[in-house]
Specification:
Number of helices: 8
Helix content: over 70%
Order of helices and strands: HHHHHHHH
Strand content: under 5%
Shape: globular
Mean pLDDT: 86
Structural class: mainly alpha
């Protein structure tokens, strides 16, 4: 029901597919009881990076932990499976882009478009900028009064969970 999920539904986004691939890879890697499951998780982790590059932040630490626990052959096989997953998207992408130079040019142009004309909190972080970003993120997608009600309910729920949660 959240507008944050569907407000840009006109554009094809890789967020949900990339997140699903990352979660699936993590589940395979974390629950690996045999070599085949670990290899499948490593392959999917490599492929997930092609769907959404940020998934590497989620999948690579889990794969690294699993590889520390694995024997030498499993480590090499896992690295190979991860590399194969990366090649599954990298080779077609490079071909479709017209080669590495053309791909890097497109990547640079996309990065420039992503960062131009947008206020980034890491570069401008006055109190006013922070309040504006919070209101823009949590209130405006809903509309003013509904957004405030949703934020109040979310805060009440967070306080209840914090109060009832067992102490770690």
């Amino acid at each position: 029901a959240s507008p944050l999920f569907w407000f840009s539904a006109l554009r094809p986004l890789s967020d949900m597919l990339g997140f699903a691939a990352a979660i699936w890879a993590i589940a395979l890697i974390a629950g690996a009881k045999d070599r085949r499951t670990l290899l499948a998780g490593a392959l999917l982790a490599g492929f997930a990076v092609g769907i959404r590059s940020q998934t590497a932040v989620l999948t690579l630490p889990m794969l690294a932990i699993a590889m520390v626990r694995a024997d030498g052959r499993q480590r090499i096989a896992s690295l190979g499976a991860f590399a194969a997953g990366v090649l599954l998207w990298a080779v077609p992408l490079m071909i479709a882009s017209g080669g590495p130079a053309s791909y890097l040019e497109s990547l640079g142009a996309q990065a420039g478009e992503d960062f131009s004309g947008v206020l980034m909190l890491w570069s401008a972080h006055s109190r006013r900028d922070i309040v504006y970003a919070l209101v823009n993120t949590f209130v405006w997608p809903w509309d003013w009064w509904i957004g405030l009600a949703v934020c109040a309910l979310a805060a009440a729920g967070a306080a209840r969970v914090a109060w009832r949660a067992p102490r770690a």
